[in-house]
């Protein structure tokens, strides 16, 4: 389910978000252009209004001067004391003022006509065009937003079937919960393996029976929720009962011993088995790394241009030392297991695996000599990683293969979706096809399976529903 949410997020970021960001930049540019055009038209109308006001003031001043000069001329013409030359002078001044007034009047009339034309054009054509552009821009924004919403819905719609399948799986898993079986699993996990204490014997002191300090008090045989004295022995030592009784006692836990001998028998065997499995898993990992170094060394030996084979000797030696250390650890814990199970002997070696660093070094040296070169396969993108336990025969192996070439069945799986094998090592599968699990996902997203026709290979882990046997045994 989380992977589908990631798919939704990637699609939204790759398509919807990118388109919206491009649209945002385009709308910003268009809006700026329209607003600048509107501001320019307003400035033109304002300048035309200022010129009209200036022409009007000029006309008013010229008209006032003409009226004043006309009044002066009339007074001079009526005054009998003034000479004819002075009257003529007043007449010339009056004519000049009247002419200036007419010119100012004509200029004012022309400027008024220009302003009226600009104002009519501004309110009937220019600004409506600007507003129309802004409206079309906003409609385009709304349309693109609508398309983005449709895209989001389509992306969500595409993953709904898969999410519904996941939800059905969750509901199915919840329906498979069985309280009785779960409680039995808890009881099984906390079983101690100690026998039930024997009845306390009556001690008749009147008959002269000796008093046994170990049985002198009934408290020595009383089973308490936290511990039981003399409940059992491991290696001849008295042990305290643990397991489920520890649920009612103190939560303080002392440091466990290396061989887990401080635990009850059943829990000790379980802990030892877990430790053995952990060591085997680590050995498998180191063996896989060793095989990779071997192949790389063979490649360097066949083509010196790629690298010097001697540079890998240190890594090979370190890997051999790790394998030898793990082998000794495995032998030690197998001995502890044999002691816990009461066996006389323990396994000293792993079948089909070399037990010393010298044999590993010998196999490494012989493999690098060119007698049996290892093949280095180059996988296409998406091919299952080679970190799974798939090994090539190594010089020095008598049978040519070891225990890691045989994969036991560890569970079953069902295909949730069909898959077409397009890479080496993968196998195709149909929807709802049942298969056996041979190897868990090692972190590369692939799981090794075996089909009903016997073919084996890798399939995507996210395409199958897994059910492991070891989960049922817990």
TrEMBL record:
Region (Disordered): 31-68, 205-237, 339-390
Polar residues biased stretches: 363-390
InterPro entries the record matches: AH/BAR_dom_sf, F_BAR_dom, HR1_rho-bd, HR1_TOCA, SH3-like_dom_sf, SH3_domain
Gene Ontology biological-process annotations: signal transduction
SH3 domain: residues covered: 408-469
Domain F-BAR: 1-182
Domain REM-1 residues, every copy: 262-339
Residues that span the membrane, as ranges: none
Pfam families: HR1_TOCA (PF25610), SH3_1 (PF00018)
Record keywords, A-Z: Coiled coil, SH3 domain
Name used for this protein in its record: SH3 domain-containing protein
Lineage of producing organism: Eukaryota, Metazoa, Spiralia, Lophotrochozoa, Mollusca
């Amino acid at each position: 389910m989380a992977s589908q949410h990631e798919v939704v997020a990637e699609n939204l970021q790759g398509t919807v978000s990118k388109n919206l960001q491009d649209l945002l930049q385009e709308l910003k540019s268009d809006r700026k252009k329209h607003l600048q055009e509107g501001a320019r038209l307003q400035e033109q109308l304002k300048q035309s209004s200022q010129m009209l006001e200036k022409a009007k003031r000029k006309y008013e001043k010229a008209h006032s001067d003409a009226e004043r000069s006309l009044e002066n001329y009339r007074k001079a013409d009526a005054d009998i004391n003034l000479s004819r030359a002075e009257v003529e002078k007043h007449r010339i001044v009056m004519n000049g003022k009247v002419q200036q007034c007419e010119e100012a009047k004509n200029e004012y009339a022309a400027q008024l006509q220009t302003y009226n034309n600009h104002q009519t054009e501004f309110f009937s054509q220019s600004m409506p065009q600007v507003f129309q552009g802004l409206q079309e821009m906003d409609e385009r924004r709304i349309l693109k937003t609508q398309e983005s919403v449709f895209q989001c819905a389509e992306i969500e719609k595409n993953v709904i079937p898969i999410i519904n399948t996941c939800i059905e799986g969750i509901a199915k898993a919840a329906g498979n919960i069985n309280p009785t079986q779960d409680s039995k699993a808890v009881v099984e996990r906390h079983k101690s393996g100690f026998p039930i204490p024997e009845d306390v014997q009556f001690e008749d002191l009147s008959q002269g029976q000796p008093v046994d300090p170990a049985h002198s008090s009934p408290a020595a045989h009383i089973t308490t929720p936290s511990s039981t004295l003399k409940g059992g022995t491991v290696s001849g030592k008295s042990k305290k009962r643990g397991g489920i009784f520890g649920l009612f006692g103190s939560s303080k836990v002392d440091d466990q011993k290396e061989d887990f001998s401080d635990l009850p028998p059943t829990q000790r065997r379980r802990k030892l088995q877990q430790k053995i499995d952990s060591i085997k898993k680590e050995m498998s990992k180191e063996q896989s790394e060793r095989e990779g170094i071997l192949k790389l060394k063979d490649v360097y030996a066949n083509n010196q241009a790629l690298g010097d084979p001697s540079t890998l000797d240190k890594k090979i030696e370190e890997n051999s030392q790790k394998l030898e250390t793990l082998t000794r650890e495995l032998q030690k814990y197998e001995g502890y297991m044999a002691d816990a199970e009461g066996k006389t002997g323990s396994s000293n070696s792993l079948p089909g695996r070399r037990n010393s660093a010298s044999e590993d070094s010998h196999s490494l040296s012989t493999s690098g000599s060119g007698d049996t070169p290892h093949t280095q396969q180059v996988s296409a993108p998406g091919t299952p990683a080679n970190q799974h336990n798939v090994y090539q025969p190594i010089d020095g192996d008598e049978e040519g293969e070891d225990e890691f070439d045989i994969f036991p069945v560890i569970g079953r799986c069902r295909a949730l979706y069909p898959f077409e094998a397009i890479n080496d090592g993968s196998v195709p599968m149909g929807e709802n096809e049942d298969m056996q699990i041979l190897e868990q996902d090692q972190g590369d997203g692939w799981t090794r399976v075996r089909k009903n026709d016997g073919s084996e290979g890798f399939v995507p882990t996210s395409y199958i529903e897994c059910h492991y046997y070891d989960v049922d045994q817990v």
